[in-house]
Task: inverse folding
């Protein structure tokens, strides 16, 4: 187990190296052949030739590529994500505070999608072709087909903006000026936990719906599969209640797979935040990243992508190790 | 060591356990499945709308997809709504003889109906060509890895694992920022970030099929590697690939729309659904005229729904465990 976990962590470190190498290739090597030089891009649109030369010198952009990469990697290792010439401050001062908001959003969304998908999926697996199953599957395929960048403005409009006009789903049943949910904005947990949660409800639901759909289908398939196994029949024959079979037997076998999927989807959710955060004006890394794209703020774009990719790798690793803890079958196989 | 159950395609068991009848059976099952028939009709309609409907609508309304009609905006900049005509010279009311905007105008006075139809062209063009490119890369690498084994397999497998560990849309956005927006660039970016799913499917199908006796028999009869690959191995993977291709086209339509929404996809003024949505949302104008967000959004939703339903239908129809 420890050795397996060790191998996994080593693999993750290699992946992180690959991420940084890819980012370096992208922003320093490929960038050189497509328009402006990396130094020009980093220094920003308004930079003078002297400033550009200074940036090139500081980042060693006149050196061979392998040396540039080592400098780049060394800076990252020291937590130095570069300097944003557009915003005139270090990138780490921009990215780390943004991570707090994004972490709240993604974790809140994960809780919501699990809370929706586990009961609906398990019920569908337990009673296939029942009304609840068909309804669940219909909603799931619909949820899978709704892009998050469309859902976000629609939810903001229906539950955030329209109530202030005295309407709920287009019906004039509310007093004008009702504030059901905030249309946007973010309050830090440390400032006011209640306002923090209140501002996160709509964005979290928005981000969660697409994932809930995928998880309903996934959990339904897994549950149905496990219920067809001999061990569940044995458990039932021995008089275990449906609830006990579902929770103790099926749940125990489904959890590891769901955990692994969750790790992969934390990474996918980091893409979703780009769309959700901009609509709900949450100052997370998606919002930061998108405004950096608009302002061509290359150091911030680079940092956001590296940080997100590293988080994705870390999430996958943590989940894989948790998987080893949860699934004895993996623990005891010497090399799967 | 990572168990990924997400691709429920049954890649481990070759789809052709009854090679003679499966294709016919699958088609019959598909025809009997109302959801699949609905999805196929929807897709046919979409293709027709894109190919014929778009130029036809442009001709009938007299608006090109990029034409900005000043009379389609009120003096305060608010575009005219659904089923309205262009305004009179004073810009205060609809001119009864003005040209009709079936789905209203956008914030630049362009015809939303014509734009959404032309947007279908972009969506389908980008998604299908990116999927085709991804399949070519993925199938070649997967066949190579599964067939050759050894270090080739190791390299390809590590590459797919690494690629799958990353938030691919995010890296795609990064690449798009660097190489710039453009139709061809978008196709290449999407293909670069989706090839590994078919590679995995084809690799595992190839590995399991290569061990089967009929391949050994064909080899004993003197079949050359090329014949073995094309005649004996490829037909075993077409089923899972077909399911994959349908669902990945949906994902790629979303990918393109997402890139265009973020402003790094198909460059304006070319109409794309993602770009239209972005125009409505980033300008904040969707709050006063929700149709601006509904039109491209619903087009996306129905397209995705059709591909997802069809993908499900094909998967069920190809399931060899299912009775006839």
Result:
């Amino acid at each position: 187990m420890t050795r397996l976990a060790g191998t996994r962590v080593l693999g993750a470190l290699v992946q992180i190296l690959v991420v940084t190498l890819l980012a370096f290739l992208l922003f320093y090597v490929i960038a050189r052949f497509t328009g402006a030089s990396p130094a020009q891009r980093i220094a920003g649109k308004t930079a003078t030739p002297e400033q550009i030369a200074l940036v090139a010198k500081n980042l060693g952009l006149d050196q061979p590529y392998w040396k540039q990469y080592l400098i780049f990697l060394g800076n990252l290792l020291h937590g130095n994500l570069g300097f944003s010439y557009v915003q005139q401050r270090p990138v780490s001062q921009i990215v780390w505070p943004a991570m707090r908001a994004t972490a709240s959003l993604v974790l809140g969304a994960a809780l919501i999608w699990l809370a929706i998908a586990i009961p609906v999926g398990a019920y569908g697996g337990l009673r296939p072709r029942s009304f609840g199953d068909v309804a669940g599957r219909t909603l799931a395929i619909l949820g899978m087909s709704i892009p998050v960048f469309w859902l976000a403005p629609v939810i903001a409009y229906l539950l955030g903006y329209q109530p202030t006009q005295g309407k709920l789903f287009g019906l004039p049943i509310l007093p004008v000026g009702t504030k059901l949910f905030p249309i946007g904005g973010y309050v830090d947990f440390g400032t006011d936990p209640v306002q923090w949660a209140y501002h996160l409800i709509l964005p979290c639901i928005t981000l969660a719906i697409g994932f809930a759909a995928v998880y309903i289908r996934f959990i339904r398939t897994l549950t149905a599969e496990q219920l067809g196994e001999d061990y569940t029949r044995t458990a039932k024959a021995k008089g275990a209640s449906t609830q006990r079979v579902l929770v103790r037997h099926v749940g125990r076998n489904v959890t590891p797979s769901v955990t692994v999927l969750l790790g992969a989807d934390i990474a996918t959710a980091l893409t979703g935040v780009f769309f959700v955060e901009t609509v709900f004006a949450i100052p997370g890394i998606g919002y930061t990243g998108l405004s950096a794209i608009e302002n061509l703020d290359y150091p911030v774009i680079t940092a956001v992508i590296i940080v997100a990719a590293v988080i994705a790798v870390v999430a996958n690793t943590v989940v894989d190790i948790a998987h080893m803890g949860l699934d004895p079958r993996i623990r005891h196989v010497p090399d799967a | 060591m990572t168990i990924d159950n997400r691709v429920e395609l049954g890649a481990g068991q070759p789809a052709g356990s009854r090679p003679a009848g499966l294709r016919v059976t699958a088609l019959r099952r598909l025809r009997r499945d109302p959801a699949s028939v609905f999805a196929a009709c929807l897709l046919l309609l979409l293709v027709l709308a894109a190919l014929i409907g778009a130029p036809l609508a442009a001709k009938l309304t007299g608006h090109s997809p990029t034409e900005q009609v000043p009379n389609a905006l009120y003096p305060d900049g608010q575009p005219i709504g659904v089923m309205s005509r262009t305004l009179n010279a004073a810009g205060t009311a609809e001119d009864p003889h003005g040209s009709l905007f079936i789905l209203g105008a956008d914030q630049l006075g362009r015809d939303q109906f014509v734009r959404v139809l032309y947007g279908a062209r972009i969506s389908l063009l980008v998604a299908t060509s990116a999927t085709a490119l991804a399949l070519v890369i993925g199938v070649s690498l997967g066949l190579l890895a599964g067939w050759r084994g050894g270090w080739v397999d190791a390299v390809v497998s590590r590459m797919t694992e690494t690629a799958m560990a990353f938030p691919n849309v995010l890296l795609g956005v990064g690449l798009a920022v660097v190489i710039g927006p453009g139709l061809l660039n978008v196709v290449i970016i999407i293909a670069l970030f989706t090839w590994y799913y078919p590679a995995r499917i084809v690799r595992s199908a190839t590995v399991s099929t290569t061990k089967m006796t009929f391949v050994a028999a064909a080899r004993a009869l003197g079949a050359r590697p090329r014949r073995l690959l094309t005649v004996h191995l490829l037909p075993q993977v077409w089923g899972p690939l077909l399911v994959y291709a349908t669902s990945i086209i949906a994902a790629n339509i979303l990918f393109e729309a997402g890139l265009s929404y973020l402003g790094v996809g198909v460059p304006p003024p070319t109409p794309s659904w993602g770009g239209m949505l972005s125009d409505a949302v980033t300008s904040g104008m969707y709050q006063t005229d929700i149709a601006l967000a509904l039109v491209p959004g619903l087009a996306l939703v129905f397209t995705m729904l059709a591909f997802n339903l069809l993908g499900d239908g094909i998967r069920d129809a190809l399931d060899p465990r299912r009775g006839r």
